[in-house]
Amino acid sequence: MPHSSVLPKAVVPDDWPPVLATSRAFAELRERSKLRYFDTLPESPEHLIERIGDAEVAVNIRASSKFNEELFARCPALLLISVWGTGTDHVDLAAANKHGITITNTPGVSAFSVAEHALALMLAVARRIPQQDAATRAGEWPRGQGVELRGKTLGVVGLGAIGRRFAELGQAIGMRVVAWTIHPKPDLGFELVELDQLLSTSDVISLHLRLSPQTQGMFGAREIGLMKETAILVNTARGGLVDEAAFVDALVAKKILGAGLDVFGAEPLAPEHILTTLANVVLTPHSAGITPEALEAGLQLAVRNVWSFYANRSRAT
User: In the chain, which end has fewer C-beta atoms inside a 10 angstrom radius, N or C?
Assistant: First the structure.
């Protein structure tokens, strides 16, 4: 709780599509703060600044809201941004630190849901589930179009909570797992290899890295060119990890077998985007971590992070 009897001024600037308002966490946030709530996305950076206004706390729901130097300078009352989710690539962390603003997130709470979704995307591409579903509904009876994954090599890029769980799921269906991670540790439990070796030998490559200046566009034409023609790429992390133009070229030319994508360079994905026309791609709308279980746990943690911030601040004064 805040260290005085005055309730903190809080704002939720971007709950669209609404998830927080229907959660148990919302009632607590509303009860324990002076809350302004918006169930639409800000129309512009200026609009986001107007919504933040004199708030001390922003509970951030969507990564499309960008928190930058200008916003921090023009919202001097802001003390905390509580991000729902793991990624903080939409927040200028250096600028936040300069202005004395604390950033919290909710890592790990959606690991099981995201890993299960990555498994579903991998299987959907390998077994051509969308195509077979459509054909069966059309009265056709297609046969022998799927790829068996048992015994194939799964390359996991990034061994955070989600990457480790997905690697376990890959092992559970009989795949050989190799991995590459930015900060390797010998006790992670999986065979670690160089990234180029992973790309050139894996039958499925799944990305589980945070987006940062170090990882932006990390998988470009050279890296995609190392992949097998029979390889599948799964991305439930961030679209910006991949050079989209090079990736689309490889999919169109069938230089890789296909892809399962939950994230994109620009979101929402435009209806006319070329990815929507490719039969060897399975698409979902950045929904991997949005199950009822993960949703409630993550939102509860985002709200608890607010009270933890004030509790720590009170102890320090």
Answer: C
* Residue 195 DSSP SS3: helix
Could you tell me the pLDDT band of residue 87, with boundaries at 50, 70 and 90? confident
- Give the closest residue to 227 by CA, choosing from 208, 251, 255: 255
The beta strand positions in 48-151, using DSSP E, are: 57-60, 80-83, 102-104
pLDDT in tens, 27-53: 999 999 999 999 999 999 999 999 999
Angle in degrees, 0-180, between the axes of helices 292-316 and 111-126, rounded to the nearest 10: 150
DSSP secondary structure code for residue 317 in this structure: -
pLDDT digits (tens, 9 = 90+) for 255-293: 999 999 999 999 889 999 999 999 999 999 999 998 999
Out of 50, 70, 267, 296, the active site residue is 267
- Residue 267 annotated among the catalytic residues of the structure: yes
Using alpha carbons, select from 91, 86, 51 the residue that is nearest to residue 68.
91
Q: Which CATH superfamily is 111-283 part of? A: NAD(P)-binding Rossmann-like Domain (3.40.50.720)
Residue 72 in tokens: 């921090």
64: tokens are 């499309």
CB neighbour class for 155 (10 Å; exposed up to 12, middle 13-18, buried from 19) = buried
**In the chain, domain spans:** 9-107+292-316, 111-283
Shared fold status for 9-107+292-316 and 111-283: yes
Residues 203-207 have a mean pLDDT of 98
DSSP 204: E
Tell me if residue 98 falls in helix, strand or coil: helix
Take residue 187 and report the two structure tokens written for it. 């006790």
Catalytic residue of the set 128, 164, 165, 286: 286
| Locus of tokens 């509303």 | 30
238 is known as an active-site residue:
yes
DSSP line for 88-100:
-TTB-HHHHHHTT
Active site residue 194: no
Identify residue 20 by its one-letter amino acid code: L
